[in-house]
Amino acid sequence: ICVALTSISGEDYKLPMSNFVYIGTSIDGRISSSSGTLDWMETVPNPDGNDLGFFDFVARVDAIVMGRVTFETIIEIGLGWHYPLPGIILSSTMDTAPEGFAEHVQFAKGTPAEIVALAKGQGFTNLYIDGGNTIQRFLRVDLIDELIITELPILLGGGDRLFDTHDQEMKFELLSSEVLLGQMVKRHYRRARVEGLSLIHI
Description:
Blueprint: E1 2-4, H1 11-14, E2 18-25, H2 54-58, E3 63-67, H3 68-77, E4 87-90, E5 105-109, H4 112-121, E6 126-130, H5 132-140, E7 146-151, E8 172-180, E9 184-191
Parallel strand pairs: 1-5, 2-6, 2-7, 3-4, 3-6, 4-5
Antiparallel strand pairs: 7-9, 8-9
């Protein structure tokens, strides 16, 4: 399924809806190494296979929104669609999924506000926003409501950063902080907005 959005009305995105980021970073704020690999995320021993709160988080969201590059990485890993929720894949060039994925994902293109409108129109109310470029796009138009970031004790020195340069300050409040497996620090932030003031941009 490929959905191309060209226009929306204001009411299409103003109803209550929350967008979440749940991601791991290095000490220097990177989400991938210079080689593009993710094996550094397994450097902390986890012999019991603790999910570290991920499935509790997933239970709060209805769908995951990710870009083409992140989706292709999942395909390359070869474990299939391992999320217990549907996916909205953002791409202007990709409109079909490999066998084993097609029943779980749809493809869409448009601005972040248009993607939110699409998701809301399908009955989704809480979105998991994943992938560096996609997170940046949503942040630039102030469409991220909560950030859950787990910092691993490693300096990568190169690779993609979670946060890029922004043209405005964004204030967040810390909801919780915990140490996982004695080595990683997980912080949960919520966007601090002025009540009654919408900062959503198209």
